[in-house]
Description:
- The structure holds three protein chains of three kinds.
- By secondary structure, chain A is mostly helical.
- Chain A has one domain (17-326).
- Chain A has helices at 17-39, 42-64, 75-85, 93-105, 121-132, 134-137, 161-166, 175-180, 192-205, 211-226, 234-243, 247-254, 265-285, 292-326.
- The two termini of chain A are 17 Å apart.
- Chain B has one domain (2-194).
- Chain B has helices spanning 2-18, 21-25, 31-34, 39-67, 73-99, 103-117, 120-131, 136-165, 176-194.
- In chain B, 46% of the residues are buried.
- Chain C is mainly α.
- Chain C has one domain (3-217).
- Helix content of chain C is 76%, strand content 2%.
- Chain C has a two-stranded antiparallel ribbon with strand order 1-2.
- In chain C, a hairpin with a 2-residue loop joins strand 1 and strand 2.
- The model of chain C is unreliable at 219-226 (pLDDT under 50).
- The interface between B and C is large, with 45 and 47 residues.
Amino acid sequence: MQLKQYPAPHIRNSQTTxxxxxxAIAALSFLYAMAYYYHGPRPLxxxxxxxxxxxxxxxxxxxxxxxRYNLSDYSAVxxxxxxxxxxxxxxxxxxxxxxxxxxxxxxxxxxxxxGHNVFNPAAAGFSFAAICFGDAxxxxxxxxxxxxxxxxxxxxxxxxxxxxxxxxGTPNYDSxxxxxxxxxxxxxxxxxxxxxxxLIYLVSRGTIRWSMPLSFFATVxxxxxxxxxxxxxxxxxxxxxxxxxxxxxxxIFLLGDPVTTPxxxxxxxxxxVTSGVMVMLFRHFGNMEEGITFALLVMNAAVWGFDMAxxxxxxxxxxxxxxxxxxxxxxxKV
Amino acid sequence: MENSFLLFISTAITALAVENAVFARGLGMDNEVxxxxxxxxxxxxxxxxxxxxxxxxxxxxxxxxxxxGRSYVMIIRPPMYLIGVLAVCLLTHYLSRKYLxxxxxxxxxRGTLPVATFNSVLFAVFFLSASQNFVLTQTLGYAVGSAxxxxxxxxxxYYARKRLAISxxxxxxxxxxxxxxxxxxxxxxxxxxxxxxxxx
Amino acid sequence: xxLSKVRRYRKKSKLIAALFAHSPxxxxxxxxxxxxxxxxxxxxxxxxxxxxxxxHMGSTGVALLAxxxxxxxxxxxxxxxxSTLLMVVMRLLLMVLYPAIVDSLGIYIYLMAVNGLTLTQxxxxxxxxxPLPVLRKAISNVLGFSAIMFLLxxxxxxxxxxxxxxxxxxxxxxxxxxxxxFFGFILVGFLLAATNxxxxxxxxxxxxxxxxxxxxFTVVDEDVQL
Lengths: 334, 200, 226
């Protein structure tokens, strides 16, 4: 038997890595379109700049490692597009550049490049930028405000519902505003309707499995209901937790990364549930208003454990099935 | 009594998770710890370290109490800590020789004792307890929490090495460099929980 | 490649090898806590380097004496006692010279008493060790540690605080996250990777040099190319 080694993502259908990345780029483009509608051309320039920085770093790191760069590898483009969408539209371009450089040079290249990275590069880049530029990254321009391309932002910046929840308050936005993204928040994380449409698109294309985001959001919902942070409590707390910060965006685009998540279906569900618990832990006790990227980095380190546990459980199930089928005890080494 | 127990638990959890010696301060990264061969060796290292740090906490807590408010505390404290730790180390050596029937285990414990005792984590625990004016319960809780946190970190490092061994890491990064980058990213993640509130 | 060029390069690279490639701080990760968490400013690097010089050289001297007069099982407690006393003396001295820096270093000043470099190098001394080679190695260890500490501190102080030796200097962007221990892990990892690369190049040059030297004195087969 000839054994061949292939790097992740391990896709067992006709899809290619290029196809998976292209679907992600298409979904992210919808979010950039909404960001352009609300804030003008600045989000597009941020996105283009971030993609250029990430691509340049990826190419340089590949050349230094004496490997040939794969032109159909769009992973750096996806990372470059994700980073600005997690930030306010008013953020300095240098912050986006720093996050992009950290994501590729530290979180991706030393581990062997695409398919071998242990940590999600976008989550790592955003986390580093959040530690370095906390205030700039967590104050947002009002929705519907067209921002200038260059120069400083003269308009007052406000905090998001995530900050209000952290203080134990109740965000003061109606359901229509929440659905349409008419409240201050990260560029790509406020448009709930568009995000849900992106999720449906990616699931229908087979880029991500429905079980992971569903398990993740269900876990967060249950914990938000049981331990509400806002005074409103109950279902209102669930809505506010799901709609605030990067939770929805992270659950779709970061959690669904096929390289940094477990391989088996049951492991993926267990991973998603544990990630939900970890995210709520960081939200309740963490130092920052947004903890999903930090929680995901911790969970990325634990993926190996989920894979091992999943393999063990799968082996047990297979042995039981064989015993039932053959009606006899199967020796331990199957 | 209940208050003391809660104080013990809360300090232990702080030392274990929030102020983990390895991830939050980069301590205890000796060669023996970074390259343990199997989980049993890690468990032995963690167990011996936990034993030494727990029993050393008693004389050291007494030392802190006696030296509180003295002007020459900076001069007297380090040698007094050393005497306390040495006493526990020698006592452990003697007890393992006299009472442990399993000679192989006794030899392993005696072999691990120097690394577990003269360790930056152990002394950091006591200096941090002193700087934060901990009482006995808090010092014991901090010691136990640090020991558990150190053991967890040893296992995290062990499994991280196994995980990284199957990655296509570039040749220059193989071994310690990529392990440090891995630990750095994990430490970055935990920093989101701790923030800037680390005492020095 | 000409043999004379290789020889000239090897002479220059010996210094790099002694300071970086063969430094125990780099090769097997000794003194990592100081490199990771305490290398946040050039003044901190200078303070810790001075302290290590005193502690390491003093402990090495005591270890040399112990190798002649002390049974092996008692050497480690003797060495640790000596390093602790030296640390106390150095701390008092450094408090007089740089009180603010010593305060900012916190527990890392105290932890120099149990630094991995001193304990590992002194424990490994054979019985009745020869003093001069041991002391020469101790000096090169301290210089190696100092060189790496200064490199890391230069990077972190410039990008983290926007200063060099406390003097503000213009920087394109200031990254406070660079001063946090997690970045120390990452930076030391990259430094070790760069050192591995330098080692590999030096090894390649050494192999080439020995191959050329062999070729001068042996008959070379026409099909073999060097």
